[in-house]
Amino acid sequence: MVRRTAMGLAGALALAGCSNTGPATPPAPCPRITVLSDGADLTRFQPGAIQDLATTTFDARLIGFQASCDYARRREGVTVTLSAIFDVERGPVARSRQVNLPWFVAVTDAGDAQLIDRQDFVTQVNFESNAGRLRVQSSPVRLNFPADERLVENHNVRLSFQLTPDELALNRRRGPR
C-alpha cells in the first residue's frame, strides 16, 4: 500500500513538472483607448426641419469598444485591434432602413499635443422591418505601433463620431447623455 502511494505521488510530481513551460511572456503593452465625450453622440434630423424629436432620422451613441493588444512577429512592434460598439435608434421620419455611421480613430502622443495618425470609417447599420433600435459592433480596425517608436503606453487612441460643426455644437449644448 505504501509503495502504491509513493509511486502515485512520484507520477503526479512527474506530470506536474511537464506542465511547466518556463516563465510566462508578459502581455503586450496597450495605449490608452477612450471615446471622446463630445463625439460620442450623433443625431441626424430631417433636412430643413426644426431639430426636435419628431424630425429625427436616427440617433446613435458610441457606447464603447472592444480592444486587444498583441506583439507583432518577433516582437518588432505591437498591433492594437479594436472594434467600436454603437447603440442606434431609428427616428420617426426615417425613410430608409439603412444608416451609415461615420466615425474615426485618432492616435496622439501622451499629452494629446501631436496627432500621429487618423483613420476614418463608416459602419453600416441595417434595421429589420420590426426593429427600431439596435446595438452593433464595427468591423475590427488594426493599428500598428513599431517597436522603435516611443513606448506604446505613451500614446492615446481616441474614438469619435465624425460630426459636422452643428452636430458638435448640439452635443456640447445638451451635454453627456
From TrEMBL:
Name of the protein described by the UniProt record: Lipoprotein
KW Signal (keyword) present: yes
Source organism (scientific name): Neoroseomonas marina
Keywords linked to the UniProt accession: Signal
PROSITE patterns listed in its UniProt record: PROKAR_LIPOPROTEIN (PS51257)
Signal peptide: 1-24
Superkingdom in the source lineage: Bacteria
